[in-house]
Amino acid sequence: MSVARNAAVYTALFEQADRVNPRVREGFARHADDPGTRRSHWFGGRFENVYIDPAKVPEVRELLAFALACAQEILGRPDAALRSGFWFNEMRPGQATLSHTHDDDDELLSGVYYLRVPADSGDLVILEEHLKTIVQPQEGLAVFFPPDVLHEVTPNRSNENRLSLAFNIGPG
Q: What distance in Å separates the CA atoms of residue 66 and residue 54, rounded to the nearest whole number?
């Protein structure tokens, strides 16, 4: 694992993406509309967050373990006990994610991992003070940033859905 830094944004590629991503996408498709699946953050005509029990998509645990290992490196706390909450974000054609932060609780780091990224399906825009960082998503890429940094996603201009896994990491 190698974490790269650009301003307040850290990125890492998950080497097992070709094996894990299809399984997580299939799990999302199977359980997104289950009665126990919770949705939140109704903005722009859609629920931005889709919460599926990790027991229903066990492969997501491998992604979260990767995210936690990256977080330990980014935070300079290799032995720290950390925990991660997560949710799926399905962005259909024409949809965008409005500017927001994740600094509601005791988060130390926020991030997103890309599961399915059609061409021209929206960029992640990180807005910190006088600096604007644009991240072009790719499958298998994890992006980390401080939870109090404003961020948004530009509209999905493709004809396909984009799928990502977002997370907040806090003390364990």
A: 15
